[in-house]
TrEMBL record:
Pfam family name, one: AAA_33
Alphabetized SUPFAM superfamilies for the sequence: P-loop containing nucleoside triphosphate hydrolases (SSF52540)
Full protein name: AAA family ATPase
InterPro entries referenced in this protein's UniProt entry, alphabetically: P-loop_NTPase
Highest taxon, organism lineage: Bacteria
Organism the protein comes from: Enterococcus innesii
Ranges in a coiled coil: none
């Protein structure tokens, strides 16, 4: 079985986890979700630093899932500065069968979305501003390899677009 990678990246509070869980729900047992926060915060309790312990286990989880499930969903901030090795690993492991998305939202929109989350009291707008990465794209602007998720799309519209992109990628076999 050939798996397709769906990578969702963006700033804290942008909606990556919400979308990833909704996409996983659509695919059911045909998808695995590898969430940076789960591995980094819940399994290892490590800081967001380059080559932290969670990175190695995330690589192993991706390797394990590839070929066993049709869809490997990977979501997180995954800043290029800290996770370039992991991101390069993903791009090499899925050279043709990948969908890469970046949540291209304003700081104000991410704060607004953060206020709707259960974790809204875990960190402040000021902390979010310190973490903020402006357009931390993997590919040069305008590259068709990275799709931008813009403000104004509903959860359903975003999920529908990812599902449609997935179906198109499957048909290109």
């Amino acid at each position: 079985m050939e798996s397709i990678l769906i990578l969702l990246r963006g700033n804290s509070g942008s909606g990556k986890t919400t979308i990833a869980k909704a996409v996983q729900h659509v695919f059911g047992e045909e998808a695995v979700l590898i969430s940076q926060d789960v591995f980094r915060r819940e399994i290892f309790c490590v800081k967001d630093t380059p080559n932290n312990l969670a990175s190695g286990l995330m690589k192993e989880a991706v390797l394990y899932a590839k070929g066993k499930v049709p869809v490997v969903l990977v979501e997180g901030i995954y800043s290029r500065e800290k996770y370039q090795d992991f991101l390069d690993f993903l791009m090499k492991l899925f050279p043709k069968k990948k969908l890469v998305y970046y949540f291209d939202l304003s700081f104000e929109e991410t704060v607004k979305r953060h206020q709707t989350r259960m974790q809204r009291d875990y960190f402040s707008e000021e902390t979010m501003r310190k973490w903020w990465l402006e357009r931390d794209l993997l590919f040069p602007k305008g590259s068709s390899e990275e799709r931008l998720i813009k403000e104004g799309l509903t959860i359903a519209e975003t999920v529908d677009q990812i599902i449609a992109d997935h179906q198109e990628t499957r048909r290109s076999d």
